[in-house]
Amino acid sequence: MILGEVVGRVWSEREVDGLGGARMVVVRDPESGAKRVAVDLLDAGTGTTVLVATDEAAAAVTGRSCVDAAVVALVAGWDSP
Fold first, then answer.
1. Beta 69-74 vs 49-54: how paired, if at all?
2. Cβ distance 8 to 25 under 8 Å?
3. What is the pTM of this model?
4. Cβ contacts of 25 within 8 Å, gap of 6 or more
5. Which pLDDT band, with edges at 50, 70 and 90, does 17 fall under?
6. Residue 47 has what DSSP assignment?
7. Per DSSP, what are the bridge partners of residue 50?
């Protein structure tokens, strides 16, 4: 899982049938700055800290085999080391 911040939305011009109009967001890893696109199951807004499931966990939670990243929690806060 990845803790990240939603930095924007993604709109597709065309998509595979497996995505079925899913809402997609860009999530940035605050430590590395790396960005990834994730299916947004919770309607997270820009600036929201989220938990992203990846790989098989993302496919399982969405029920869509083509998904490899999915927002699964909105994070209210956390303790940093």
1. antiparallel
2. yes
3. 0.89
4. 6, 8, 9, 10, 37, 38, 40, 44, 71
5. confident
6. T
7. 4, 74
